């Protein structure tokens, strides 16, 4: 009887949104965000190409979806490890299933909107990935945001995330400087679960869908048994206003993110990424002071990006779009309200950002490029990243309280 009550309680609290009173629209901020976005789009197209302009618009869409759903990778891992909440991980599995399906079609057929041959993120799974993703797992819990989370919360007005972003850029530059050492460590070759196994993209798709279903099914059983506190529902409204005023359901955002990543692959020829831009921004900054970053191993594959405007870098323009899209969404919701930063939070933010930046360079990407893009591209290194980032999250739960950061508790009604 108690088990039945527990299961019913769990199933009745699954909604990620709830009707409620919304804050007034911050119209000046909305118009400011729209104006800056329009001007930046025009500048990007004039200085570079229409393709870059399209990628900027895709970035805006990513920012809107991330903020409206408060779609988290950091919080999903933290809730899973600390109290057994599986809602975030379940959303990840849906997102990955959608992206994997579309990626399989695109990569198998070579489909492209721009004529650029699509290539997934398939990289070696070595000690650098193991170490880098473990560092990233610690860092994202210390910095209270992953790569995508840092960008959209900066746009959403969370003051401490500006510090996390600065640490992220610094760590990315340091990781780029040290990359030669890490890439010389033992490693497996780049392994694609589609091409390297002989399964092909259809066989690889079947394999990964089975894995996603297995993980999803395991989380359902786990949650029914553990009955963890659920995510606090986000306030939303009804009708068409929900599109720009209220919160979006988590699973809806998961589908949208999967589709947007596939569109990105078909436009620029690579999946969505974030952190390579941080290494570029930091390296270009050091160049101003005469540092010969072009001699670093990281830049030996090509220094063109160092000599061009950042608007020519597709990852950079998408990052700008994410920040602005989140700013517009937060303003529509009336939630753009930067606040004070506590010293402990500031320290954790800079340390966490640094660990994420450094770890992302070692692991061939972050939660987006390595985890999301890697797994959707059928890369073994994406699965290694997921496991090690979860391990890093586990360790970080013991460190966070030292900086005044709270972890979810089994006694919470919501987390």
TrEMBL record:
Residues spanning the membrane: 29-47, 53-73, 94-115, 121-140, 161-182, 202-223, 243-263, 316-332, 344-363, 383-403
UniProt keywords, alphabetically: Cell inner membrane, Cell membrane, Membrane, Transmembrane, Transmembrane helix, Transport
Topology class, membrane: Multi-pass membrane protein
GO CC terms in record: plasma membrane
One of the Pfam families matching this protein, by short name: Sulf_transp
Localization, UniProt: Cell inner membrane
UniProt similarity note: Belongs to the TsuA/YedE (TC 9.B.102) family.
Protein known as: Uncharacterized protein
Species: Halobacillus alkaliphilus
Phylogenetic lineage: Bacteria, Bacillati, Bacillota, Bacilli, Bacillales
């Amino acid at each position: 009887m108690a088990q039945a009550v527990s299961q019913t309680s769990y199933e009745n609290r699954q909604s990620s949104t709830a009707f409620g009173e919304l804050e007034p629209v911050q119209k000046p901020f909305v118009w400011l965000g729209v104006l800056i976005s329009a001007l930046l789009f025009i500048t990007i197209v004039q200085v570079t190409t229409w393709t870059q302009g399209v990628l900027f618009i895709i970035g805006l869409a990513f920012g809107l979806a991330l903020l409206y759903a408060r779609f988290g990778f950091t919080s999903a891992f933290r809730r899973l490890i600390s109290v057994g909440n599986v809602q975030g991980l379940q959303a990840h599995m849906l997102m990955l299933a959608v992206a994997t399906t579309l990626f399989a079609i695109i990569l198998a057929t070579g489909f492209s909107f721009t004529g650029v041959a699509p290539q997934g993120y398939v990289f070696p799974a070595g000690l650098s990935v193991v170490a880098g993703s473990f560092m990233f797992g610690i860092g994202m819990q210390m910095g209270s945001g992953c790569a995508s989370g840092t960008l959209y919360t900066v746009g959403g007005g969370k003051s401490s995330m500006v510090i996390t972003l600065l640490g992220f850029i610094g760590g990315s530059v340091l990781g780029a400087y040290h990359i030669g050492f890490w890439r010389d460590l033992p490693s497996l070759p780049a392994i694609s679960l589609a091409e390297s196994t002989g399964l092909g993209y259809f066989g690889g798709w079947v394999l990964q869908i089975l894995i996603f279903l297995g993980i999803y099914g395991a989380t359902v059983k786990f949650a029914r048994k553990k009955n963890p506190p659920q995510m606090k529902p986000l306030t939303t409204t009804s009708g068409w206003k929900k599109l720009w005023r209220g919160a979006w359901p988590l699973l809806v955002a998961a589908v949208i993110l999967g589709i947007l990543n596939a569109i990105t692959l078909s436009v620029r020829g690579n999946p969505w990424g974030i952190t390579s831009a941080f290494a570029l921004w930091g390296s270009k900054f050091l160049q101003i002071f005469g540092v010969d970053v072009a001699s670093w191993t990281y830049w030996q594959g090509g220094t063109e990006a160092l000599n061009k405007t950042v608007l020519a870098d597709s990852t950079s323009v998408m990052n700008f779009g994410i920040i602005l899209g989140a700013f517009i969404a937060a303003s529509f919701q009336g939630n753009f309200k930067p606040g004070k930063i506590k010293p402990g939070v500031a320290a954790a933010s800079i340390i966490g950002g640094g660990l994420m930046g450094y770890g992302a360079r070692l692991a061939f990407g972050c939660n987006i490029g390595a985890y999301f893009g890697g797994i959707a591209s059928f890369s073994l290194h994406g699965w290694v990243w997921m496991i090690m980032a979860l391990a890093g999250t586990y360790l970080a739960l013991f460190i966070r309280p030292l900086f005044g950061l709270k972890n979810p508790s089994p006694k919470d009604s919501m987390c």
